[in-house]
């Protein structure tokens, strides 16, 4: 399990222009975008953390089947959000004391709450944390999944901008 940020401002894809053209432009969503955090695992639907005070169900209505969401002021993973993710994880993995599951994650401070650790102990989830400052080398999701995922999201955002001229993409449009 790992988190990554996804923004509402995409990098436009390659643009074909006439040879010798001095200025070539493409439309982006905004100068400064809003970031949501995705918490992903290998085999469970994602969890999205929105930078809002209160979560609304329509935030994830365009998301993948089974995805869930939370909201907090920063939009980053916090202890309460991690507990929601653990419950989501346990539901999809069906872990128990008889059928334990290993959850590999980085050592972010949000992953270290007593409530979360006690939940894992009682539901057969074994936590394995990477040492500080090395998850970018050891975390499989960083190495193999997030690059293609962000490229796909960027491509979908580019297509969204082309099909909605003049509109600004919001965080509610991201769960494509």
Order of helices and strands: EEEEHEHEHH
Overall domain count: 1
DSSP helix count? 4
Structural class, please? alpha/beta
- The Cα radius of gyration reads 19 Å
Q: What share of the residues lie within helices? A: 25-40%
Brief descriptors of the model:
alpha/beta; Nucleotidyltransferase, domain 5; 4-stranded mixed β-sheet; two-stranded parallel sheet; 4 helices; 30% helix; elongated
Summarize the structure.
Helix content is 30%, strand content 18%. With 176 residues, it is of the alpha/beta class. The chain has one domain (2-7, 32-163): Nucleotidyltransferase, domain 5.
What does this structure look like?
Pfam families: DDE_1. This is DDE-1 domain-containing protein. InterPro entries: CenT-Element_Derived, DDE_SF_endonuclease_dom, RNaseH_sf. By secondary structure, the protein is α/β, with parallel strands linked by helices. It has one domain: Nucleotidyltransferase, domain 5, CATH 3.30.420. It has four helices and six strands, in the order ββββαβαβαα. The strands form two sheets. Strands 1-2-3-4 form a four-stranded mixed β-sheet, sandwiched between helices. Strands 5-6 form a two-stranded parallel ribbon. The longest helix is centred in the last third of the chain and has 24 residues. The protein is elongated, with a radius of gyration of 19 Å. The two termini are 21 Å apart. The relative contact order is 0.20. The mean pLDDT is 78.
């Amino acid at each position: 399990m790992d988190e990554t940020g996804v923004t509402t401002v995409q990098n436009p894809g390659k643009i074909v222009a006439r040879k010798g053209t001095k200025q070539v432009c493409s439309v982006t969503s905004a100068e400064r975008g809003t970031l949501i955090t995705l918490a992903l695992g290998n085999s469970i639907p994602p969890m999205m953390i929105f930078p809002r005070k209160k979560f609304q169900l329509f935030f994830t209505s365009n998301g993948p089947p089974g995805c869930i969401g939370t909201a907090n002021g920063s939009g980053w993973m916090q202890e309460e959000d991690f507990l929601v993710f653990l419950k989501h994880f346990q539901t999809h993995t069906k872990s128990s004391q008889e059928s334990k599951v290993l959850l590999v994650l980085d050592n972010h401070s949000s992953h270290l709450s007593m409530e979360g650790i006690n939940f894992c102990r009682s539901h057969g989830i074994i936590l394995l944390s990477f040492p500080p400052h090395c998850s970018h080398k050891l975390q499989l999701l960083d190495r193999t999944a997030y690059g293609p995922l962000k490229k796909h999201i960027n491509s979908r955002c580019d297509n969204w901008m082309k099909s909605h001229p003049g509109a600004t993409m919001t965080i509610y449009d991201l769960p494509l």
